Queue: 2 jobs
Job 1
Amino acid sequence: MRSTPKVAIVMGSDSDLPIVQKAIEMLETFGVEREVRVISAHRTPKMLDDFVLKIAEKEIEVIIAAAGKAAHLPGVLAAKTLIPVIGLPMKSSTLDGLDSLLSIVQMPKGMPVATVAINGSENAALLAIQILALKYPYLAEKLASYRDAMAREVHEKDEIVRKNFM
Ligand code: RP5
């Protein structure tokens, strides 16, 4: 039984890394352990199977799967494990990521993948943290502080804008 939270971030290609980096940083900010991998559902299906076999042994609790174009990676991972999979659609193609979004969000009944916005790295990490916060109370506290800080920022900006347009 883990005493610290752990997330796996899997991306279909290293070309996804610049966007995925923001999810990695968010997990680091919250002190969540992460394993980061490049595994393609299409190009390396055997590698994907090997990864899935070790999920339980490594005690991975949530997966963030980033993929672009015919983005099957999150769905295939969801089909092969019982832990929650968060799909992160990449804006990696001539279709501006709409293809990735629809591939990931349109999972058939019975096999859900939680889907965030195109290139929504930070939200993918935050959703993973919210899931983990059910088990790790310190994450719930950190999330509350994160939201308080965000709200303070909006109040400060509102103050500035109001003064400028009085
Ligand atoms: C997907 O194909 C990857 O997730 C990536 O977003 C997209 C393009 O991959 P590369 O051709 O740049 O390796 O599998």
Note: The mean pLDDT is 97.
Job 2
Amino acid sequence: MKYFIDTANLDQIKEAHDLGILDGVTTNPSLMAKEGIKGNEAVYKHYKTICEIVDGGDVSAEVVYTDFKSIVEQGKQLAAIHKNIVVKVPMIPDGVKAIKWFTDNGIRTNCTLIFSAGQAMLAAKAGAAYVSPFIGRIDDSGWDGIELIQQIANIFAIQGIESQILAASIRSSLHIIKCAEAGANVCTCPLDSIMGLTKHPLTDIGLAKFMEDAKKFA
Ligand code: E4P
């Protein structure tokens, strides 16, 4: 499974990249707004900086329009920023139409805001490189996000569908493990959830003992 970080914060992206495990980045308009970035020029510049930090990993950049023509126009601009930009398109009818247009024109897409297997199947049919089910938001509404990942993974395996399942809206380190188990190809996570994977109290206790004993032969 690949590890993406789900943020537009440059320090967090650098920290995950320095760990040596980062495969890519996802952003969305809310994450960009959180960083206080304003205006198309500044937003596009920010995407370029992110691409340069991850150097080689895919970076999802989301369109902020909902009609086919505007999605395609902005998607072309986003794709022109850097070869690793993947245009993030919402799961709406005009979005599906735009994903097909991007596919036919050699631009890779990530279909976002997926909450059902049917939505994932349609995005894949249109040629999305990634489909993004929002695990945490599904859990928040009393449904089981991991079950959706399992269902999509099962359908994609049976049907030989090549779109990557990008588990999004991750809330915990356990989510990451469960997504891997359920068959996600990629998990996009907050930095805390990634760092949480390094932690175990027995590791801390064991290390303290090793460091103490090391003093005996230093
Ligand atoms: C995915 O690409 C989205 O940016 C993200 O995972 C949404 O997560 P949230 O539900 O925590 O906002």
Note: The pocket of erythose-4-phosphate is lined by residues 6, 26, 28, 112, 132, 134, 136-137, 168-169, 188 (CB under 6 Å).
